[in-house]
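Thread: Modeling a multi-component assembly for a lab meeting

Hi all, long-time lurker, first post. My supervisor asked me to bring a structural picture of a complex we are working on to next week's group meeting, and I have zero experience with this. I have the sequence lines for every component (591 residues in total). Could someone generate the structure of the whole assembly? Inputs are pasted exactly as I received them:
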Amino acid sequence: MRVDVEDLSVEIAGARLVEDITLRAGDGQVVGLVGPNGSGKSTLLRCVYRALRPAAGRVLLDGDDLHALTAREGARRLAALPQETAGEFGFTVDEVVAMGRLPHQSAAGRITATDRERCAAALRRVGADHLADRGFLTLSGGEKQRVLIARALAQEPEVLVLDEPTNHLDIAQQLEVLSLVRSSGLTVLAALHDLNLAATHCDALYVIAGGRIVDCGPPHSVLTPELLAEVFSVRAHRVPHPASGAPQLLFDRLP
Amino acid sequence: MAGLTAALLLSLLCCVALGSSGIGWGETLRHLRAGLTGGTIAPDEVSAYTIVWELRFPRALLAAVVGAGLSAIGVGVQAMVRNALADPFTLGISSGAAVGANAVLLFGAFASLGVWALSGAAFVSALAAMVLVYAAARTAQGLTPLRLVLTGSAMYYGFSAITTLMVFSASRGEAARSAMMWLLGSLGGATWSSVPIAAAVVLAGLGYLLWSARGLNALAMGDETAAALGVDAERLRRVLFVVTAAVTGAVVAVSGAIGFVGLMVPHVTRMLVGADHRRVLAVAPLLGAVLLLWVDVVSRLLLAPVELPVGVITALIGVPCFVVLMRRRGYTFGGT
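Re: Modeling a multi-component assembly
Sure thing. I ran the full set together rather than chain by chain. Output:
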């Protein structure tokens, strides 16, 4: 499913945090959003998974205006891993994943055999079926993230939105989460902090600063020392990844 | 579930049979049957019959209804503010309801409403308290859990202060005494006219909560997650706020401010059946009803013939419970 963000502006409490953003993610593409803290990445994504309404502009899924769909219709097409702690209620992994079926069920509807099967398949897909009966709050960061991806997969969406999915994970978990996301085959929109991970896992990158898009394109054409100096205020050296050839960056402070 | 329902019926029976006036089990059962089927009784048994059928039975039913109601609202409020240590008191609603009730008791306010004055006033002031808390806690981003809890707690003290002021400025000693009963909760006012309304409101509220149980699950995971799952968190929280306030008002109107039931019962329920609100909302009301039936028995028998306010017993059990629970887990009180 194609995602088009058209001339999107978002305001919170009168402050315009995202200004006139246009971006596109083709069917099955993994698109990364990179930019300094406070640049508007999360705000943009929150608007895409409908936690915020746009002040202007539209989000289109295969041409349909997302904010014109009902919340449930929207959630059947697009799933998200927001950046928030999961509260303090002791849900089991099974229960967390089952929440992904919510947009597919009627209000009083019982969990059907199909629902259960979808949830089990989603857990298997992320390699977390052995965690099914564990309490979600007792899991490690990496396990939690895998379970949340399973919840998103159980939602059977065509688009997946991720807000900094690798935060607080160790490096093996970071690579694992991103390869899971890549292998899902879904259209992915992800805000990423780590530019090297973004360079190796994304088909295209959008660079956001001050609520606006500064540059976009494939990682190797976007992640230039000039742009990184301008946007992140660092001096960057580019080297090819010895295995994959993807551009990788080493940083200094700007002189 | 079947076991709990059986326990509820048995507790109901015990609550009717146990009391300070020494009416035997057989006699209790006979009077209950007479009341239920409209049978006849001997003239010399009228006083025992009145105690069983007009005093104890409605009182036991009320205990069950109030216990179930407080537990259900507790579950709702905890999901609403995303905090497992919240209860209807945390939002200041029940102490607001007590202000209205005391105005009636001490100053005869709303006298034109007749017998409805007390419950009507409690209900109206619960709603007024709700509007106040809502208006004070609301921001441009909507209702955030932490603000709701903090505002509610502050309002609780404000409303309690108003009630205390009223008690002190009222000259009638007996009224002040019954006002104290109100602040601490009592089931002594149960009559056949007060039980059905409270039961209807509690059932309606419980029905709504059960209907939105899956939404409550999503809400408990956070507003952003709820949004991504197709649940409008802000709207659900608004409706929950109104529903819980209405049920609280109806419950406080007939029983005063009975604390800690709405805190303890949801907790114990989650320990037993997990956090899924569909199961919690099925079990917690039954458990709450059983708990309050037995608390009522204790409050009547502990210092018999003096009757203790029910809230004293629930607080004596509830406060240590609260402290243990809070220390055992890393509660965030709705903040992050």
